[in-house]
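Same chain as my last thread, 227 residues:
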Amino acid sequence: MTRRYLACFSAFCPNARNLINPLALVISFWMAAVPYSHAQLNIVFIDTDGNPVKDVIAELQVSRIETVPQEIGVMDQVNRAFVPNVLLIARGQQVRFPNSDNVRHHVYSFSDVRQFSTPLYADEEVDPILFDQAGVATLGCNIHDSMVAYVYVSEWQHRYQSDELGRISLDNSGADVIHVWHPWLQTPENRQEIPLTGASNNQLTIELDVRDPSQVFGFRAIREENS
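reply #2:
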């Protein structure tokens, strides 16, 4: 492609051969720089023991959501546990809470982001809940104290959630830092701001200080701010 640019330039300016080498350098630099600014960056989140961290929420806080997704999020209840344990949605989305167990559940949230309480229900359908404020809603069940889950409501266009292997793939469109959250992260409000530096071949590994509270039941497992 660079050669075509140079050929066209030479056709219109046949006496400008002395400019070809500098021009080639400029065009080559420009063509290399443009795709790099939109390069795909693959990130793996690990804990201090080197294990992958699932359900890390990562945000590039560059542009806010312009159009709210129309699909309704789903937080199911299976084997007396919320599935998924962390649900990522956009601000303005609704969430359904089906019950796939053979026992009754009573879902509630006391979080400032969204406070609600469903009726005690088993097979019947309950109305979806609207989440119109950004933040984290911690969910529980009035019947089963060990059931805890989180709805993360994001207001940012570029938002991601790590998979079972701790992986996300993002469009690094000029952001210098990434904002992460995880319910077990040992930082104030379980949040951390991490510079996007040190990547090699568009690969970056980020270590997080997360601690599994699974030995503690119910809402006592939630890390209190500044503890």
